[in-house]
Amino acid sequence: MTQNTVEVKNLVKTFGKFRAVDDVSFYIPQGEIFGLLGPNGAGKTTTIRMLIGILRPDSGTANVLGFDVRKKPEEVKKRIGYMSQKFSLYNDLSVRENLDFYAAIYNDISARQRRLRVDEMLEMVDLKEIEKSLTKSLSGAWRQRLALACSIIHKPKMLFLDEATAGVDPVARRYFWDLIYRLAGEGISVLATTHYMDEADYCNTIGMMYQGRLVSLASPDTIKDSLPGVLLQVDVKDPLEVQKVLQNVPCVLHISIQGMQLHVTVKRDSDIGTIERTLLRANMPASNIEIIQPSLEDAFTSIVSQERVKAS
Amino acid sequence: MTNNAITVEGISKRYPGQKDKLALNKISFNVPQGSLYGIIGPDGAGKTTLLRILSSVMLQSSGKASVLGFDTRRKAEEIRKLIGYMPQEFSQYPDLNLIENLNFFANIQGVSKSQKQERIEKMLTLTNLSGFRQRAAGNLSGGMKKKLALSCAMVHNPRVLILDEPTTGVDPVSRAEFWSLLSTIVKDGVTVLISTPYMDEAERCSMVGILYDGQILKEGTPEALTDQLPFNIIEVKAKPRKQMREVVSQTKDILSWNPVGDRLRLSVPPAKERSISRELEYSFKRQKLDLHILRSARKTMEDVFVTVVEEQEGQKS
User: Fold this and answer.
1) Three-class SS of residue A252?
2) Which of A113, A181, B87, B109 could form a disulfide with A109 if both were Cys (CB 3.0 to 4.6 A apart)?
3) Between vectors from CA B103 to CA B100 and to CA B109, what angle results, nearest 5°?
4) CA within 13 Å, CB half, A85
């Protein structure tokens, strides 16, 4: 008996000459949240499409909830939940009618059970008060919550989220992730893709994809700790100009601009004073320089640029 | 002579069929020439409506707006020649290649034959797309599509750029590239009005307006907006996470707290920051939690946004 909800071994998918997914292996234990990150076009959505049974792998195996996605795609589809950036909701139906519709697709529950289940979902995502509102009149954040409820109305043990929070504001994103956390607490496994790196921090394990390959597979903390060098947060007035100046300093490995600050990766054991003095000489003094723990955004940027260097 | 590239005076927009709801409710603000002005707001706040009106592709119901001195209602033709507008959806032709797309947009914008070649080359160099001229637009990656869309919006050398969520759904590295591109464009003197759901991007704007329910609730430089917040932030990370939450919820004087990724951000009264910090450290130690981070953190535009939205929603309910 397996403990893992998802087991992927050496998965490959090609489109013509293009290897969209190239020898990918990972697993997701029950109740864990797995984050799949990577640049646009890295193969994240193709991977998900194979795992939910709508795209046939060329080679390799993938088991979801104990079923081989290649041999038993219908069994997989029945048992999983899936939500993507493009919510599939009926705009001319009310909130309740949408939920009822999705509940009815899974025809093995009675009308009474269905009603109870819809009520339970409305409570969970906090939409009970507006159950009669037309879906098209809802804000993006509410539509997102409704879409989530629809995708788990049949109580799946495995939930796939493909950029489910793209374009949504921070308040709504936090609420959404609180819900996901609750689901994981109830034993549901989750695979999520996102471009928001703060969301990736919610995951137990992160797989980083680049050009079809899984180039990193570890917990968020391990990924951050494994970055080369030391990360400095530098507060300056004109990040773009300062970036140009610091690029030529020998101990600097990498620079990225984050909001009003610069994140500068320097070689281990380098003298931080060098950075300070360089900026003073250039007449762009930093108001603050401190060593910080890298964020996943730093890690992502660093891993992608390393892979780009390897590729060129 | 005015120093504003865009002026907006009491603009409202009501869509047909939506009797009780104003998409925009008497909005007024100015975008100074040469600035990078960011509009942030939740989904459905009215960002796209506002940008469409200012690009003169849609009419307001009332109020007045002008772009580079031209009235959006009466001088739409003039405005369209002087501005570049990048809608949220990919609007290039997927089966045409990059050169063909750029040519097409240069033609409809009336770029003269003598200048067309030069402008197209300049755009390809600026966006680093020179190596892909023959590729069909539909086969570009997400980040490259956005850069092509920007090139098409700028091929006629506009003085004002209006960009509707140009980085939504784009990965962090491509996003960073897009923003250094924008900085270059602003340095060249182009005024940029941009909407975005990313709060770190809001911090790179020279001015920010927070749009909520059709109204601008706050406006200012990112520095001014974060300075105005009446609290300080303590950032905490300890494991196990559940016990960390328990400790925090039992600590006195914390105004509010929010999970952000694997951390908690606590809003605390500035006068009590030290005592709260000390108490947290003590509680974590006593309960034998594994403490990774406990520090005073910089206030961000995300804090501003969350505070403004929560205040507003608190008033409604």
Assistant:
1) strand
2) A113
3) 145
4) 12
Chain A residues closer than 8 Å to B292 by CB: 293
Three-state secondary structure call for residue A234: strand
Residue A170 at interface with chain B, using a CB cutoff of 8 Å: yes
Tokens of B51: 């940008």
Which stretch of DSSP H or E encloses residue B272? none
CB contact, 8 Å: B305 with chain A? yes
Structure tokens given for A311? 């590729």
Q: What single letter denotes the amino acid at residue B225?
A: L
Which two three-digit tokens encode residue A282? 């250039």
Look at residue A129 and give its three-state secondary structure. Answer: helix
Q: What is the identity of the amino acid at A24? A: V
pLDDT tens digits, A240-270: 889 889 988 999 988 888 777 889 999 988 8
Of the candidates B54, B19, B4, B68, the residue with the CA atom closest to the CA atom of residue B211:
B54
Q: Do B43 and A39 touch (CB under 8 A)?
A: no
Q: How far apart are CA B11 and CA B102, in angstroms?
A: 33
Phi, psi (5° rounding) for residue B221? -75, 155
What 3-state DSSP class applies to A46? Answer: helix
* B 188-217 → A contacts, CB under 8 A: 197, 199-201, 203-204
Pair of tokens at residue A180: 């996901």
* pLDDT, mean of residues A71-89: 91
Q: Over the stretch A142-163, which tens digit does the pLDDT of each residue have?
A: 899 999 999 999 999 999 999 9
Tokens of A107: 């025809």
Is the CB of residue A140 less than 8 Å from the CB of residue B43? yes
- CB of B46 closer than 8 Å to CB of B23: yes
Whether residue B40 has pLDDT greater than 60: yes
* Residue B168 near chain A (CB below 8 Å): yes
DSSP label of A295: P
In angstroms, the CA A64 to CA B88 distance is: 36
Q: Interior CA angle at B223 toward B220 and B226, to 5°?
A: 90
Which residue, among B112, B47, B54, has the nearest Cα to B83 in the 3D structure? B54
How far apart CA B116 and CA A260 sit, in angstroms, is 37
Reported as half-sphere exposure (CB side, CA atoms, 13 A), residue B301 has a value of: 30
* Between A237 and B215, residue with greater pLDDT: B215
In chain A, whose CA is at the least distance from the CA of B222?
A260
| Region of B189 on the Ramachandran plot (φ > 0 left; ψ -120 to 50 alpha; else beta) | left
The 10 Å CB-count burial string (b at 16+, else e) for A71-93 is ebbebbebbbbbbbbebebeeee
